[in-house]
């Protein structure tokens, strides 16, 4: 998985199109904080979603592999007077969490897990950490997005203060991709600083995720797509999965 390195500095600005409020609604509709209190945000990044869930009444903890991301999250919590445990931890090595009511892996974070065995291990460890009746919420890129949309690059972005050029190429595994990004960040006046990032993502068929979850022992699995309650179709881009222990 990727540490994101300097990407943490620009992450929030690049994620302004993510409807975090809809993610909160998805969780609160099925696992309201009055009944499901203890929540673990896995791949919490800069803490945007975690802070929104805290405001809903959940007792949130967060983990992320990137210490840079966690530093931004910690600063966000401090600025908002929020006390929240944050841990630098790989999601396939989750430990020390017992009796969780809710676990989330938001914004395609699990797609950064490269090996199939590590994806399975992540889901197993979450299952063990949840109480009976606890729920797991996560989303992944669809095969269509990984195999077609991502490879229809390059993509560009420019808001005057931040510019990036984003190239993609197929990864070594089926349904995987390398993201090669060059950023130019305004530092002072007309001066810009360049830095480069390479990220890898891999996804699997919807049926594969469902099979893993049921093999692990989850009692029920519900699947929808693209921020709706509708079932996925051939051109769905983001798949949402809710599993109940």
Structural summary, described in words:
- This protein has 245 residues and is of the alpha/beta class.
- The chain has 2 domains: 177 residues, 3-Layer(aba) Sandwich (Rossmann fold); 57 residues, S-adenosyl-L-methionine-dependent methyltransferases (N-terminal domain of TfIIb), CATH 2.20.25.
- 28% of the residues lie in helices and 34% in strands.
- It contains 7 helices and 11 strands.
- The chain has a 7-stranded mixed β-sheet with strand order 3-2-1-4-5-11-10, sandwiched between helices. A 4-stranded antiparallel β-sheet has the order 6-7-8-9, with no helix packed on it.
- Helix 4 links the parallel strand 2 and strand 3.
- The radius of gyration is 18 Å and the shape is globular.
- The two termini are 26 Å apart.
- The mean pLDDT is 92.
How are the SSEs placed, and which strands pair?
Layout: H1 11-14, H2 20-30, E1 38-42, H3 48-55, E2 59-64, H4 67-79, E3 86-88, E4 100-105, H5 116-129, E5 130-141, H6 143-149, E6 155-158, E7 162-170, E8 176-188, E9 191-202, H7 206-216, E10 220-225, E11 238-244
Parallel strand pairs: 1-2, 1-4, 2-3, 4-5
Antiparallel strand pairs: 5-11, 6-7, 7-8, 8-9, 10-11
The fraction of residues assigned to DSSP E strands is 25-35%
Which word captures the global form?
Answer: globular
- Major sheet: arrangement of strands: 3-2-1-4-5-11-10
Order of helices and strands: HHEHEHEEHEHEEEEHEE
Sheet with the most strands, sense and barrel status: 7 strands, mixed
CA-to-CA gap between the ends? 26 Å
Mean pLDDT: 92
Category from helices, strands and their pairing: alpha/beta
Helix content: 25-40%
């Amino acid at each position: 998985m990727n540490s994101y390195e300097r990407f943490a500095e620009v992450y929030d600005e690049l994620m302004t199109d993510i409807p975090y409020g809809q993610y909160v609604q998805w969780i609160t509709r099925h696992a309201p904080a009055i009944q499901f209190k203890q929540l673990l945000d896995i791949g919490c990044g800069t803490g945007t979603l975690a802070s929104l869930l805290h405001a809903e009444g959940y007792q949130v903890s967060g983990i992320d592999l990137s210490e840079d991301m966690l530093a931004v999250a910690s600063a966000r919590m401090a600025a908002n007077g929020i006390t929240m445990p944050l841990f630098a931890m790989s999601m396939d090595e989750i430990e020390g969490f017992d009796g969780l009511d809710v676990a989330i892996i938001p914004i395609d974070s699990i797609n950064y897990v490269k090996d199939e065995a590590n994806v399975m291990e992540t889901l197993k460890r979450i299952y063990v950490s949840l109480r009976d009746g606890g729920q797991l919420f996560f989303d992944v890129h669809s095969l269509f997005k990984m195999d077609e949309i991502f490879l229809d690059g390059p993509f560009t972005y420019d808001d005057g203060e931040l510019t990036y050029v984003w190239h993609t190429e197929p990864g070594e595994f089926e349904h995987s991709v390398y993201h090669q990004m060059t950023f130019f960040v305004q530092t002072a006046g007309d001066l810009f600083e360049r830095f480069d990032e390479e990220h890898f993502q891999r996804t699997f068929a919807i049926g594969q995720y469902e099979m893993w979850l049921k093999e692990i022992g989850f009692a029920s699995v519900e699947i929808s797509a693209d921020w709706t309650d509708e079932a996925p179709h051939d051109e769905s881009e983001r798949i949402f999965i809710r599993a109940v222990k």
